[in-house]
Amino acid sequence: MTQLHIDLLLALRGAGIYGAAAEDLLTDMRRGRHRALTLPELEQSLRDLADRIFAQTFSTAMQKKRWAITGIGAAALQEEGL
C-alpha cells in the first residue's frame, strides 16, 4: 500500500458509518501530506482500494456517492499498526 492508500483508509475510518465524499477526501488529503493531489488521482486510489476490498462506495438517501472503509480495510490498518 502507498502512503496515499493508508491516509485514505485512515480518513475513511474516521468518517465512520457515514463515509466521505471524494471531494471531502481530496480536501483532507491536500491539507496533509498530499498537497498536489488531483481529483483523478484520488479517484484512482479509491478504486485501487475498492479492488482490494479495503473500501467501498455507497449512495446516501439523497443519492450522493460516498466511500467507506470495509472490515478488511480496517484489518489492513490494524496489521500496519495504525
Task: Give a quick set of tags describing it.
12% strand; two-stranded antiparallel sheet; 82 residues; 4 helices; globular
Could you explain how this protein is built, in words?
With 82 residues, the chain is of the alpha+beta class. Helix content is 55%, strand content 12%. The protein has helices at 3-15, 22-31, 39-51, 71-79; strands at 55-59, 65-69. It has a two-stranded antiparallel sheet. Strand 1 and strand 2 (65-69) form a beta hairpin. Helix 1 crosses helix 3 (39-51). The longest helix has 13 residues, at 3-15. It is globular. The two termini are 13 Å apart.
Task: Summarize it.
The chain is an alpha+beta fold and 82 residues long. It is built from 4 helices and 2 strands; from the N terminus they run αααββα. A two-stranded antiparallel sheet has the order 1-2.
Topology:
Elements: H1 3-15, H2 22-31, H3 39-51, E1 55-59, E2 65-69, H4 71-79
Antiparallel strand pairs: 1-2
